[in-house]
């Protein structure tokens, strides 16, 4: 079992995670509809360059290019029989960059094996059982461990069933586990989980993830509100992860771009640290430039009082969903939207 992640986590007041994978790969030439994971073989130098750019920006950890690495997601590209080699190579590329940082700079950098959703619906809404999902995640997790990751990073989840399957699958390696959900439907995940629900559920998991939190979502202000909710429900010793999008997406000349500035991400970092996040990074749209601003902000910030919703709006801008208006209230999940994204019709969520 790798203990590098736990040692680094316990020795520092915070850790900075990386930025976006997909957004930056699109900028490097990835085409819509292509499998990003195949770039581990087709363009390994570009994956190395992306990881290196995050390390150069000050990241203490970065995620491997393996988000869609389960057999279910890879089946969309007819690569379901290449799970082991794809994930192992993603981890090996990451390991090379982390080892280089240690050898040349004396820096400890953590390689986190990214494990995203299967894209399938679980019983009773769909055909997939928890055991089916766990077997697929275990296949991916073993390959990531073989390639040398320090921690398995389960991300962009929306249902208890999938988190259960992912944690069960990841546990076969003995590696530390992190789990994050995307709260993007009026303050809930698409399958109806509130932040408080997620905290309670995390404490029921065996093994319990070493850290948990939120990634993706609908923008920095909403993510910050989610972090306050997670912190309000957290128990002593819990480690909270904040990995928010860089502003709001928009289309320009046929491409998805994000309107967040480096200054916005710097302020977002201060807000979520005030709210109690110990691991802070960016998700969709976050470039190395944004990450450098985030690093500078974290290095010079002493966490203050827990931010209120009004304070978050003042510092980061308006809440774009009903997250603030529905604090503490029960709201239904995303209905047809849930089914559309669960079946893989939407693009990679962590772009």
Mean pLDDT: 91
Number of structurally distinct domains: 1
Q: Alpha-carbon distance between the termini? A: 30 Å
* Count of distinct strands: 10
The succession of helices and strands, N to C, reads HEHHHEHHEHEHEHEHEEEHEHHH
Show unreliable segments.
328-349
CATH topology group: TIM Barrel
Largest sheet: 8 strands, parallel
Rg over CA atoms: 18 Å
Please indicate the percent range of residues in DSSP E strands (runs of 2 or more).
Answer: 5-15%
Describe what you observe in this structure:
The chain has 351 residues and is α/β, with parallel strands linked by helices. It has 14 helices and 10 strands. It has one domain (4-342): TIM Barrel. α7 (130-147) crosses α8 (160-170) and α10 (220-233) packs parallel to α11 (262-275). The longest helix has 23 residues, at 83-105. The two termini are 30 Å apart.
Brief write-up:
The protein has 14 helices and 10 strands.
Give keywords.
TIM Barrel; two-stranded antiparallel sheet; 10 strands; 8-stranded parallel sheet; about 350 residues; about 15% strand
Please describe the topology of this protein.
Blueprint lengths: L3 H8 L3 E2 L5 H6 L11 H4 L1 H13 L4 E3 L7 H4 L8 H23 L4 E6 L14 H18 L3 E7 L2 H11 L6 E5 L13 H8 L8 E6 L3 H14 L6 E5 L4 E4 L2 E4 L3 H14 L1 E6 L5 H12 L9 H8 L19 H7 L9
Parallel strand pairs: 1-10, 2-3, 3-4, 4-5, 5-6, 6-7, 7-10
Antiparallel strand pairs: 8-9
Helix pairs in contact: 4-6, 6-7, 7-8, 9-10, 10-11, 10-13, 11-12
């Amino acid at each position: 079992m790798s203990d590098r992640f736990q040692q680094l986590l316990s020795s520092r007041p915070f850790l900075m995670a990386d930025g976006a994978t997909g957004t930056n790969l699109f900028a490097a030439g990835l085409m819509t509809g292509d499998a990003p994971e195949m770039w581990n073989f087709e363009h390994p130098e570009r994956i190395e360059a992306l990881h290196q750019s995050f390390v150069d920006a000050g990241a203490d950890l970065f995620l491997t290019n393996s988000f869609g690495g389960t057999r279910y997601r890879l089946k969309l590209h007819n690569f379901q029989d290449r799970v082991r080699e794809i994930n192992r190579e993603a981890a090996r590329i990451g390991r090379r960059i982390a080892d280089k940082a240690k050898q040349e700079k004396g820096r400890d950098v953590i390689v986190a094996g990214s494990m995203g959703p299967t894209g399938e619906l679980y019983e009773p809404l769909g055909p997939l059982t928890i055991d089916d999902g766990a077997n697929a995640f275990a296949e991916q997790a073993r390959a990531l461990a073989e390639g040398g990751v320090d921690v398995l990073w389960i991300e962009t989840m929306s249902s208890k069933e999938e988190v259960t399957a992912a944690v069960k699958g990841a546990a076969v390696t003995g590696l530390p586990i992190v789990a994050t959900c995307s709260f993007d439907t009026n303050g809930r995940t698409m399958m109806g989980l509130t932040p408080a629900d997620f905290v309670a559920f995390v404490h029921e998991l065996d093994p319990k993830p070493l850290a948990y939190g939120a990634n993706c979502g609908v923008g920095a202000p909403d993510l910050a509100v989610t972090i306050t909710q997670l912190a309000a429900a957290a128990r002593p010793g819990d480690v909270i992860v904040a990995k928010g999008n860089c502003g709001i997406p928009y289309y320009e000349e046929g491409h998805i771009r994000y309107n967040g500035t480096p200054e916005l991400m710097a302020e977002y970092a201060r807000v979520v640290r005030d709210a109690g996040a110990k691991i802070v990074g960016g998700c969709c749209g976050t470039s190395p430039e944004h990450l450098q601003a985030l690093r500078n902000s974290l290095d010079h910030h002493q966490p203050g009082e827990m931010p209120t919703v009004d304070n978050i709006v003042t510092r980061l801008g308006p809440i774009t969903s009903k997250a603030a208006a529905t604090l503490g209230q029960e709201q239904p999940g995303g209905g047809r939207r849930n089914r559309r994204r669960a079946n893989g019709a939407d693009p990679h969520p962590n772009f």
